[in-house]
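User: Please run a holo structure prediction.
Assistant: Happy to. Please share the sequence and the ligand.
User: Here you go; the ligand is NAI.
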Amino acid sequence: MRVVLYSTKPYDRRFIGEAAAGRAHEVEYLDARLDRHTARLAQGFEAVCTFVNDTIDRPIAEQLAGGGTGLIALRCAGYNQVDLHAAAELGLRVVRVPAYSPFAVAEHTVAMMLALNRRIHRAHTRVREGNFSLDGLLGFDMAGKTVGVIGTGQIGTVVARILAGFGCRLLCCDVHESDELKQLGGRYVDLPTLYGASDIVTLHCPLTPQTHYLIDADAIARMRRGVMIVNTSRGALIDAQAAIDALKDEHLGYLGLDVYEEEADVFFEDLSDQVIRDDVLARLMTLPNVLITSHQAYFTDTALRNIAQTTLDSLDAYAAGGGLANEVTAAK
Ligand code: NAI
């Protein structure tokens, strides 16, 4: 089967290439993101393989279907970037990689919490410049702190396990309650209770119309002064301007972002010799208590190997005409 991959980097090509070896697919790699201009490059490819910032809205789905594509294989878990209704109407099937390593994302989440708390990013820069003072680096013990986990699925569960090991108290919010979370000592509460009692709030729910700007000015105002918020889920869970306002008046004490609503034009690219045109991102980058990573939480060798393996297995299954274990369809 002919497959074209959008948004590929050298590391993607390495892991996909290894997984594709010995399988009967003709694989073409593109650097470009999938958009209305680049969709025509998929002409004649039965399968199109995309990543988190490749948007597949109705016009793009129409172009892909018109060009002979039948399968969209997402190299990620989230599928908020795909118009599943349009895809279904056009006969495009969509598969994703539902779980490639919850550990990768969870461990990065906790790394961000620890780095923000103990100001590791600032300490590292200081020491390199010969400044060995501790002023401004005061942290807090994680033991005994209350962490609010929003979304207790695969990643939220691993985060909770790690934090339980630190001796944190866990407050949880999810539309489905997890027995494992309760066994870890987690207590399910409503959002206002979680906001009011948490020292750290960590986001692990998907981006949906219900969770869009879940963390807005009102939500932050309900939180404790000095609270830490960490988002490794999807950028638009947070109203970034509201976060900046709360950081400026010091109600929000720390912000860790691995994802950002407008990340598509910035993240994964080396822009070090360019001007950052996004004023919201540029402002966030100036604040000492904000830590930003570039959608890096998933980025471990285990995760990349699993993404490649699952994606190639889905391509095999589609080519064989069998069922697609990781298919996603629009909610009825
Ligand atoms: P999951 O599907 O296992 O868990 C998501 C949980 O959120 C579920 O338990 C679900 O019931 C809950 N949920 C749904 N709507 C909710 C709401 N309105 N309020 C509270 N909880 C709600 O997903 P998983 O694998 O844990 O991933 C979580 C998110 O992490 C993904 O949606 C994705 O956006 C993000 N992600 C980020 C990565 C990164 O590199 N930064 C990599 C992989 C995933």
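The mean pLDDT is 97.
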